[in-house]
């Protein structure tokens, strides 16, 4: 049985805890590897080593650090297919989707090449007589990233790129469900010229997470995952004096106005609702058609599209629409929530509960589901399902539709489909959600903007990637300098305002 260990001080390092976690092949249900789980002592040793390596790395000028990112971009492009294959084998998503996972992370690394400009401070000449003022952006020291299973390339790249190019050392704790790609990325960074010890990949579970949160050397923690864990990490990290940037769950609504192009809207819902088996924090899981006529027409267009979806392993080719979910427990939870929808009175228009893929009976495949006439009190509406399940909530008006999204506890992403510019502008202005799409179903910002949800989808003051990442991973130091033209006799005892 293959064993997966840690990446410490520039080399694969076997864990000594004797504790392991199984890594499954989601398509077959078989265990394909065992992952070593770190102890608190192992984590603390990795942090101490990273702190030593950070000193020289933090003193390296930003342009040289950016050159490592430039080389890293080339190496990711070179190994794109290898990374995507490893990702698909452990996560289960299709090969094109896996390449997209890597690509969206790569775009953030491309943005990081601009670090010399993004790390520039500010300068005021002659703030007072002979007095200049300037600010400097300096690294925090050692920071940590705790990343989820659903984007095993993209989210680690979103964390490590800005953190490292700002001059920090990073402890990366990837998901134990699909750990191979982060280790491959660490090796590529070494090949790109990153000094050993600056990036440490430490695999683990809650014991390792708690060790990160309690370690006094770690100055900041970035997390993506479920809302309960995001809130736990935010509160514990903050209580320990760390910066924390924690992103949680979602329940993303797409409002379909009566004037929308319904074919376009239906196609968008298929991709946004069922792509990656619904295991995306930006997946559209709630369709909100406005008016009965709009709702009836939308359902009529969705059903044949859903029934044509091809579900299968990534090895079946590029025409597979989505693959298995990540674990047996995830499959069971999805089906439990589907049954709750039926029990609570929702209309199951497309029923995927009996889906069975010949030859892969033990895999974690879930058929597509479509609910209609869902109400806000149902579990399938209040909870994040994280599976191939689309719920339709019918709204009588635009105001009723927007209220649904605004009243939900999650505020990650939302979208509206309409031909009316006034409606679109009003929606974008009023909605209390962090990322908004106008005729765009999954409004994930590009790398030079920032990514982040509101309400219980995000905890912390600064978002991921874009300029916010450079603010999060640096401290601002402000210097007031005076170079007198002559020697002044005597001391001044009053605080004097600058002229």
CATH H-tier superfamily of the largest domain: Aldehyde Dehydrogenase, Chain A, domain 1
What class would the helix/strand composition place it in?
A: alpha/beta
Number of helices: 16
Which sheet architecture does the biggest sheet show? 7 strands, mixed
- Write out the strand line-up for the largest beta sheet, numbering strands in chain order: 15-16-17-14-13-19-20
Describe this structure in words.
With 499 residues, the protein is an alpha/beta fold. It folds into 2 domains: 2-248 and 457-479, 3-Layer(aba) Sandwich (Aldehyde Dehydrogenase, Chain A, domain 1), CATH 3.40.605.10; 252-438, Aldehyde Dehydrogenase, Chain A, domain 2 (3-Layer(aba) Sandwich). It has helices at residues 40-59, 62-78, 80-91, 95-112, 115-118, 154-165, 180-192, 206-214, 227-239, 262-274, 292-307, 328-343, 379-382, 398-407, 421-430, 467-472, and strands at residues 2-4, 6-8, 11-13, 20-25, 30-36, 123-128, 131-139, 142-146, 169-173, 199-201, 218-224, 243-247, 252-256, 284-289, 347-350, 369-372, 389-392, 410-411, 413-417, 435-438, 454-455, 458-459, 474-482. The longest helix is centred in the N-terminal third of the chain and has 20 residues, at 40-59.
């Amino acid at each position: 049985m293959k064993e997966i260990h840690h990446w410490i001080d520039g080399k694969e390092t076997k864990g000594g805890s004797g504790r392991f976690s199984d890594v499954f092949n989601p398509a077959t249900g078989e265990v394909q590897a065992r992952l070593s789980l770190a102890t608190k002592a192992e984590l603390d040793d990795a942090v101490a080593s990273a702190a030593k390596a950070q000193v020289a790395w933090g003193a390296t000028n930003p342009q040289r650090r950016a050159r490592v990112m430039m080389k890293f971009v080339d190496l990711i492009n070179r190994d794109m297919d290898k990374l995507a294959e490893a990702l698909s084998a452990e996560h289960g998503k299709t090969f094109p989707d896996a390449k997209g996972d890597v690509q969206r992370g790569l775009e953030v690394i491309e943005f990081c090449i601009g670090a010399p400009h993004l790390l520039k401070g500010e300068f005021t000449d002659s703030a007072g007589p002979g007095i200049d003022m300037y600010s400097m952006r300096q690294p925090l020291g050692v920071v940590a990233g705790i990343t989820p299973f659903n984007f095993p390339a993209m989210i680690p790249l979103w964390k490590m790129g800005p953190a490292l190019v700002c001059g920090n050392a990073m402890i990366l704790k990837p998901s134990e469900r699909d750990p191979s790609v982060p280790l491959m990325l660490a090796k590529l960074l070494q090949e790109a010229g990153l000094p050993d010890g600056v990036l440490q990949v430490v695999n683990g579970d809650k014991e390792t997470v708690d060790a990160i949160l309690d370690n006094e050397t770690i100055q900041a923690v970035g997390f993506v995952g479920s809302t309960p864990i995001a809130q736990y990490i935010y509160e514990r990290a903050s209580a320990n004096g760390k910066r924390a940037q924690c992103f949680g769950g979602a329940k993303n609504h797409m409002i379909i106005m009566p004037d929308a192009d319904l074919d376009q809207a239906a196609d968008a819902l298929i991709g946004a609702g069922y792509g990656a088996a619904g295991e995306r924090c930006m997946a559209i899981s709630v369709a909100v058609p406005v008016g009965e006529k709009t709702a009836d027409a939308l359902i009529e267009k969705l059903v044949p599209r859903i029934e044509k979806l091809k579900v299968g392993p990534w090895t079946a080719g590029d025409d597979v629409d989505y693959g298995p979910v990540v674990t047996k427990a995830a499959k069971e939870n999805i089906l439990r929530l589907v049954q709750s929808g039926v029990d609570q009175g929702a209309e199951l228009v497309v029923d995927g509960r009996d889906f069975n893929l010949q030859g892969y009976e033990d895999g974690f495949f879930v058929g597509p589901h479509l609910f209609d006439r869902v109400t806000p009190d149902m579990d399938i509406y209040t909870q994040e399902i994280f599976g191939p399940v689309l719920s339709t909530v019918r709204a009588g008006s635009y105001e009723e539709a927007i209220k649904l999204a605004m009243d939900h506890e999650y505020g990650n992403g939302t979208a509206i489909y309409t031909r009316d510019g006034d409606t679109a502008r009003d929606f974008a202005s009023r909605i209390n959600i962090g990322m908004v799409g106008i005729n765009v179903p999954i409004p994930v910002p590009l790398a030079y903007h920032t990514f982040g949800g509101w309400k219980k989808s995000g905890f912390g003051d600064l978002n991921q990637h874009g300029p916010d990442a450079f603010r999060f991973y640096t401290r601002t130091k402000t210097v007031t300098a005076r170079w007198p033209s002559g020697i002044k006799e005597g001391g001044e005892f009053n605080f004097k305002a600058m002229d």
